[in-house]
Amino acid sequence: MTHAETAARALNLRPAQVAAVAQLLENGATIPFIARYRKEATGELDEVAIAAVRDNLARLAEIDERRAAILRSLEERNLLTDELRTAIDGAATLSALEDLYLPYRPKRRTRAQKARELGLSPLAERLLTGQEDAALRPEQEAAAYIDPAKELPDAETVLSGARDIIAEAVAETPEVRADLRAFFEENVTAASAVIPGKEEAGAKFSDYFDAAEPLADIPGHRLLALLRGEKEGILNVSFRPPRDAAQALVREHFVLGDTAAAQQVAQACDAAYTRLLAPAMEVEARLAAFTRASNEAIAVFVDNLRELLMAPPLGRKAVLALDPGIRTGCKVVALDPQGKLLEDCVVQLSRSDAERRAAADTLLEMGARHAIAAIAVGNGTYGRETLAFVRSLPFPEGTVIVSVSESGASVYSASEVAREEFPDKDVTVRGAVSIGRRLMDPLAELVKLDPKSIGVGQYQHDVDQTHLRRALDDTVLSCVNAVGVDVNTASKQLLTHVSGLGPALAANIVAWRDAHGPFANRKALMDVPRMGPRAFEQSAGFLRIRGGDTPLDASAVHPESYPLVERMAADLQCSVPELLQHPERAKSLDLQRYCSDGVGLPTLRDIVIELARPGRDPRDRFEVFSFDESVHTIDDLTPGMMLPGIVTNVANFGAFVDIGVHQDGLVHVSELRDAFTKDPREVVKVGQTVRVRVLSVDRRRQRISLSMRSGTAAPHRRS
User: Fold this and answer.
1) Residue 227 and residue 233: Cα distance in Å, rounded?
2) C-alpha to C-alpha distance for 390 and 387, rounded to whole angstroms
3) Is the pLDDT of residue 397 over 80?
4) Using CA atoms, how far apart are residues 706 and 695, in angstroms rounded to an integer?
5) CA 588, 590, 594, 596: dihedral to nearest 10 degrees?
6) Taking a C-beta distance cutoff of 8 angstroms, is the pair 435, 406 a contact?
7) 163-181: b or e for each residue (b if 16 or more CB lie within 10 Å)?
8) Which end of the chain is more exposed for a tag (fewer CB within 10 A), N or C?
9) Distance CA 96, CA 597 (A)
10) CA distance 78 to 99
11) Would you place residue 476 in the very low, low, confident or very high pLDDT band (cuts 50, 70, 90)?
12) CA triple 443-449-450, angle to 5 deg
């Protein structure tokens, strides 16, 4: 069976679909490009399915690589038989491969190896084959091997060595390992206990000081918490099934009857389980459970990141941005509609009335001087007070004044990217710029940050970091290309995430733009150094040129399809610009007439949709949100209060909601709605505005419990 067939069966796809994706990926195509512009080849697979094909094929390639390494090792040591080769070639998983290789793997000198060197292999074989012989006396058989010079002073020592040989053989039998692996998967209990003396230091893990739960049932976030407690030296954690049942399963493979020889074999089986199999299977169980929990946590992180990146943008408007501060004052920056820094200063709001009046004058003057349309106030320390102050000022009617998340702004302000953009400004000014730009276009600003610094992950430092990085990179790439990028205004960092570009080409595009001015059309991109035909093919459809000399360049129609649109316009007896102005004309076209070997109805339907709204932004429209003005700190909260809030993070156990008191509250999964909720993501998303009821307030531990159940207004869902 080919890899395409294997992956297709695993993913419930057609082999032809998998083969097409594999070929496109091998040729350098990106997932967004394949999903958007090669629908005919893949049978309209979406980005999720294409990524699954990629990952499945990568896993199969990893197995093949390991298979080849094992075969080379066996051949080099003259251990490879035809039967063993056939078994290895037929192994479908890494576990099956390693089980087959285990008896031949170079290893340190074991107890069984030492016993074999002492000549005890015949005795071990005699015990195994003579189990049904009631007359066989193990002690008598062992007597022939007693030799004090060989450290075999008595029969029990001899039998112990023979059992060591049997135990290793048992532990290296693929069928035993396969059955025991399946048994572990279904019957392991995750048990934890506090390490004596660590009770106070590990108070946050108190729920796990004496806990046990079936591993198959434990939620991913609880498993990661257990493992973190173990890593921090607070908990002892074990993953074992019932011992007697596990040992009985191992015995079933080797023990025949109840003779004296069979009892020796049974002892060897028990030793094989206790000393060799159980530790190995526990490692596998840990890894499998960790992988499951890690994948769950990464899926939550990815969903949260996508919602954050796709948050509604204010758009291109002049913005005044404030980074609140008490001791050092509020940092204020004015940005033009393209996000360019025009002016910066510091105002004091917390020390005296005179300074507050001066601050008011400064803010109003800056607003008038730069025709400010919106004001962004960071939501950090002193953020609510600053927001209230700004809203008290007589800015022109229609001025948007909103609180903006500062999460990650400090990381950006100290980054190489920020130093490159503003080499002569300190970190406080850079942070304020980031706050303002995040209001204008969250996606364009957030791509400058490592996603892990944004604060929407769950146990992000505990999960598989390679998998996390790839998943986050996929998400950023997906979001950037779903929105599209204005090639004449985008930053180098934003262009880096466009399909087919990368850091070097992105830098070349910006350098060419700086040297020659705005691109007049997509074709001009071919003048950029290192922009070859393949990179152009991958990127062109996602790059927008607004106001250029080719109207379709502002749309998501790929240049390879321009002749089709021109043909459509000619058939409708109009020009392409006229067709864009009156896209309803395209509805009368018989799309079947335009089908060819490379272009089918999926692409043609996409073109017609794009003609109706060229370069449309898939993000929602921006809406102003306000916290309850009577609540500013946790001390203002009382149980029963109904408050507006914004979902800041979603985890498997619930959602965190910002209600404007500098400490997010938790809506436990059981409090998200009246109906049973297994996955909080079914109900809420990051950035969603909700109405919550305060259940309880723990001021000492700074914990707020919230509810969205009956008695709480229904949440406003983003479409």
Assistant:
1) 10
2) 5
3) yes
4) 5
5) 150
6) yes
7) bbbbbbbbbbbbebbeebb
8) C
9) 43
10) 19
11) very high
12) 120
Close Cβ partners of 544 (under 8 Å, ≥ 6 residues apart): 484, 485, 486, 487, 553, 554, 555, 615
Provide the pLDDT for residue 714: 42
Q: Round to whole Å and give the CA distance between 184 and 245.
A: 11
* Token representation of residue 426: 């300190």
pLDDT given for residue 629 in this prediction: 84
453-463 burial by CB neighbour count: b if 16+ within 10 A, else e?
A: bbbbbbbbebb
Which DSSP category does 517 fall into? -
**Cα dihedral sign, 346-350-352-356:** positive
Q: What is the average per-residue pLDDT within 268-273?
A: 97
Burial 474-491 (b: 16+ CB within 10 A, else e): bbbbbbbbbbbbbbbbbb
The answer on pLDDT for 719 being more than 70 is: no
Question: According to the model, what pLDDT value does residue 711 have?
Answer: 60
315: DSSP letter: -
pLDDT of residue 717: 38
> 233: left (phi > 0), else alpha (psi -120 to 50), else beta?
left
Asked if residue 458 has pLDDT above 80, the reply is no
The DSSP code sequence of 97-132 is: HHHHHGGGS--PPPHHHHHHHTT-HHHHHHHHHTTT
Tens digits of residue pLDDT in 162-187: 999 999 999 999 999 999 999 999 99
Alpha helix (H) residue ranges in 517-583? 533-539, 562-571, 576-581
- Other Cβ atoms closer than 10 A to 504: 11
Q: Is the pLDDT of residue 715 over 90?
A: no
Please report, for residues 192, 208, 210, 221, 580, the alpha-carbon distance to residue 234 in angstroms, rounded to integers and kept in the order given: 10, 10, 12, 17, 65
Which pLDDT does position 628 carry in this prediction? 87
Are residues 550 and 565 in contact, defined by beta-carbon separation less than 8 angstroms?
no
Per-residue pLDDT reduced to its tens digit, 326-335: 888 899 999 9
Give the amino acid at 203: A
Start-to-end CA span in the chain (Å): 43
Are β-strands 374-378 and 341-347 bridged in parallel, bridged antiparallel, or unpaired?
A: unpaired
For 398, list phi and psi in degrees, rounded to 5. 95, -10
What does the alpha-carbon distance between residue 519 and residue 660 come to, in Å, rounded to a whole number?
44
pLDDT at 200 over 80: yes
